[in-house]
Amino acid sequence: MNDRPPAAHKDLAGRTLLVGVCGGIAAYKCAEVVSTMRQAGADVHVIMTEAAQRFVTPLTFQALSNNDVHTDMFGTGTAWEIAHIGLVRKTDAFLVLNATANTLAKLAHGIADNLLTTCVLATRKPVLIAPAMNTQMLEAAATQENIRTLHERGMFFIEPGAGFLACGEVGQGRLADPDTIVSAVEQVVRRAHELDGLRVMITAGPTREFLDPSRFLSNPSTGRMGFAMAAEAHARGAEVTVICGPTELRPPASVHVVRVTTAREMQAAVMEHLPGTAIFVGAAAVADFRPAQFAPSKVRKADAASTLVLERNPDVIAQVAERKPPGCFIVGFAAETDDAEQHAREKLLAKKLDCIVTNRIAIGGGAFGASDNEVVVLWGTDGREALPRASKPAVAAAIWDRIMALRPSRGRPVTT
Ligand code: C5P
Q1: Residue 391: how many other CB atoms lie within 10 Å
Q2: Where in the sequence numbering do the catalytic residues fall?
Q3: Per-residue model confidence as pLDDT tens digits over 53-112
Q4: What is the pLDDT at residue 5?
Q5: What is the rounded CA–CA span in Å between residue 15 and residue 39?
Q6: In b/e form, how buried is each residue of 278-315, taking b as 16+ CB within 10 angstroms?
Q7: What is the set of domains in the chain, with CATH numbers?
Q8: Among 286, 323, 351, which residue has the most ligand 1 atoms within 8 Å of its CB, making it the best to mutate?
C-alpha cells in the first residue's frame, strides 16, 4: 500500500543523535522530544547534567531512548571515555535541550566541567540549542551575549516560546514545542550533507587601500555576513575557504582562512584557490578604487595634495565569472542605498553571476556589522526571493537554501 501518510520526521530514520538535557523544570518535556525522535527511527543517546537528574530520572530517558543514559564524567573503568568520544564522533547532530543560562554560559566560554559541556566542546557536528528559563534570565545581558556568541560560532538556536513560566511569570522562556524542536533537528540533519565533497570559496570583510603607511581607504564591512555564509556552508558538509579582508571578528572554526589586506591581494588569493571551486560567494566589500600613488613614508600635512588621484581595482567576482571552473556557481552580494534591486539586477547580469544577494545600507552603516540582515535574492532576468529580517546566521541558511534550489545538481549539465 502506498497511500499511507508519509512517516513523521522521516529524515531522522537511521540517524544517530546525541541529546544533552539540562536541569530545569522543562526537563520532563525533553522526554517527549527523545520519544518522538526514537519513533522516527533515530538512535538517540542522552546525556544528563546533575541538575537535570533532580527533575527527571535517567531511567525515564533510558526507557524512551532504549540506550544507556550518560551522566558521569568519571564513571568506572576506561571504556566510558572511549564510548563517549565514539558517540560524539558518530552522532549526526547534538541537541542541547532545556539549555539553562548556566549551561549557555559554560558553552560560550568553553568550560568543560561536566559530560554535557565536555561533549559539546569536543564535537564538530552541528549543535542545536533549545533554551528554557525565566524571562529575566533569558533577557539578561550576559545570557544574550552568550547566545549571540554561540550563534555566531555556528550553533543553531531553537527560540524559546512565550507563555506561562514555572516561576509564575508570563513571558518568553518556555522550551519550544517538542515538534518544533524535532523539526529543527530534522532540517539540520537533512542539510548536513548537502554540500558534501564540494569546495566553497567565500570572500568576506573589507579591503584596505593605503595612501601611505598610516592612512587607507576602506568601508565599514566587518565580514559578519561572509562568516555566517562560511559557517553554514561548513555545517552542510562543504570544504570552505574564506578569503578575508582585515576584521576584528573571529572566523568560524573549521574553515580555511586566508587573510589579505588589499583588493589586489584578494584577487590573487581568490585566483590561486579557484581551481576545484564548486560554489564561489563574493560577500566581501572590495574597495573599487585605490590611491594611484602609494607614499612609502607618511605624507606630511603641509605636503599633502588636496586632491586624491584614484585608480580602479580589479573586480574580483567578475574575473571569477570569466575564469570559473566548469560548473562553478557564483553568488554576489550588493549593498545599495537607492534602487537596490535595480542596481543589483544590473550587476547580476553585467558580472554574469548566477545570483546576487542585495541589501540596503543606510547612512551610518545599515547592514554593515549589524547582527541582523534583511536581503532580497535575485537571479536571472526576473527571479526574486525576499527573505524576512533575521539574524545573519539565519539569513545565511535561507540564502544557502536558495543556492541549493538554483544550483543544478552534480552530474547534470550546467547551463550558464
Ligand atoms: O560592483 P559592486 O562592488 O557593488 O558589486 C558587489 C559584488 O561584487 C560583491 O559580490 C563583491 O564582493 C564583488 N566585488 C568584487 N570585486 C570588486 C568589487 C566588488 O569581487 N572590486
Answers
A1: 18
A2: 167
A3: 999 999 999 999 999 999 887 765 555 555 667 778 889 999 999 999 999 999 999 999
A4: 47
A5: 12
A6: bbbbbbbbbbeebbeeebeeeeeeeeeeeeeeeeebbb
A7: 13-191 (3.40.50.1950), 199-406 (3.40.50.10300)
A8: 286
The three grid cell numbers given for residue 20, joined into one nine-digit string? 544533552
What is the 250 CA–ligand 1 centroid distance (Å)?
Answer: 22
**CA-closest candidate to residue 259, choices 227, 228, 214, 231:** 227
- 202-212: pLDDT as tens digits: 999 999 999 99
Residue 363 has pLDDT above 80, yes or no: no
Best probe residue, ligand 1, of 271, 312, 316 (max atoms within 8 Å of C-beta): 316
Instruction: Determine the Cα–Cα distance for residues 22 and 29; give it in Å rounded to an integer.
Output: 11
Going from the Cα of 347 to the center of ligand 1, the distance in angstroms, rounded, reads: 9
Please give the distance, rounded to the nearest whole angstrom, from the Cα atom of residue 267 to the centre of ligand 1. 11
pTM score of the predicted model: 0.81
Q: Is the CB of 341 under 6 A from ligand 1?
A: no
- Burial status of residue 149 (CB atoms within 10 A of its CB: 0-12, 13-18, 19 or more): middle
Here the cell at position 243 is: 578569503
Half-sphere exposure of 92 (CA within 13 A, CB side): 21
Decide the pairing of beta strands 372-373 and 383-386: unpaired
Closest-CA residue to 397 (of 203, 273, 231): 231
Q: Which three cell numbers stand for residue 406?
A: 538554483
For residue 336, the CA-to-ligand 1 centroid distance in Å is 12
Per-residue pLDDT, averaged over 264-285, amounts to 98
CA 12/CA 93 separation, integer angstroms: 10
Residue of the nearest CA to atom 19 in ligand 1? 286
Residue in the block written with cell 570583510: 205
Report the pLDDT value the prediction gives residue 172, as an integer from 0 to 100: 80
Contact 45, 92 (CB under 8 A): no
Probe ligand 1: pick from 317, 348, 357, 358, max atoms within 8 Å of CB? 317
Distances (CA, A) of 23 to 61, 167, 179, 279, 350: 14, 15, 21, 43, 56
